[in-house]
Amino acid sequence: MGDPAKKPIVFISNLTPEWLESGLRLAACGIERDPWKEQMVEIISQTSKGAENIRKSLRYLRHIYIEPTEYTELRAEAFNLYNSSTELKREKIISWGLAILTYPFLNEVSATLGRLLRVQNDVKLEQFIRKLTDTYGEKETVVRSGTRCLKLIVEEGFLLRSSLGFYSLPPTLKIQDQKLAAWLLKIWFILNSNQSPADRTALSNHPALVFFDAPSLIEAGLRTGAVSLDRMSFSQDTIVLNKPTSN
């Protein structure tokens, strides 16, 4: 699955769920590049001051939604899902999926939190930073980027922060829309397994999926044909990402 420490640490702007979801809505509705940028500047400017802060935030959002990407098909699928899905939280799910796809360090932060929360009920900021720097090194960029990722995760509602500064999990999010759930599972394969087969039990408990009901993602992937089941033995099932079929 690769060494996470070798992945780039790129997430040094404070993004908000509102900006992510606004960028998604505009892009999915077919707004052209320049009008998209103009409208996003207006949206960002409502809560962020300073030309440099606005420029930096806009750059991150551009890369998620309108700049060329190696994941063109997944992004197009995301826009189609936004326009067709009746999932109540589709904006949150799709914008999150595209954000971690564009900036994998955000996914690595989620996995770090997941590892901690698998063995304890809540986490302090100091524990999280220590675990993150154990992997990536004690660098200012790691601490700053990790803290900003954590802030976004809390604002998304994936974690709860108590008055004493402890972070804990709310109930996991179960995606009702089978196609949307399968889309998110495909992103997991790209980010976490290099699209290699994954043990079903390990996938069901993977720390990067800690915010979601992972078994239901797998079931959705199987039902929609996004993934296939390969039985290695009576006790081991492997999940394989299917290649897209050409029309």
Write the layout of secondary structure elements.
Elements: H1 17-28, H2 33-45, H3 51-65, H4 72-84, H5 90-102, H6 104-119, E1 122-124, H7 125-136, H8 140-155, E2 160-161, E3 166-168, H9 178-192, E4 198-199, H10 200-204, H11 214-224, E5 227-233, E6 236-241
Antiparallel strand pairs: 1-3, 2-3, 4-6, 5-6
Key features?
single chain; three-stranded antiparallel β-sheet; 11 helices; globular
Strand line-up of the largest beta sheet: 1-3-2
Instruction: Tell me, rounded to a whole number, the average pLDDT.
Output: 91
- Range of helix content: 55-70%
Structural class: mainly alpha
Query: CA-to-CA gap between the ends?
Result: 31 Å
What does this structure look like?
The chain is mostly helical and 247 residues long. Helices cover 57% and strands 9% of the residues. It is built from 11 helices and 6 strands. A 3-stranded antiparallel beta sheet has the order 1-3-2. Strands 4-6-5 form a 3-stranded antiparallel beta sheet. It is globular and about 60 Å long. The two termini are 31 Å apart. The mean pLDDT is 91.
Quick take:
This protein is mostly helical and 247 residues long. It is built from 11 helices and 6 strands.
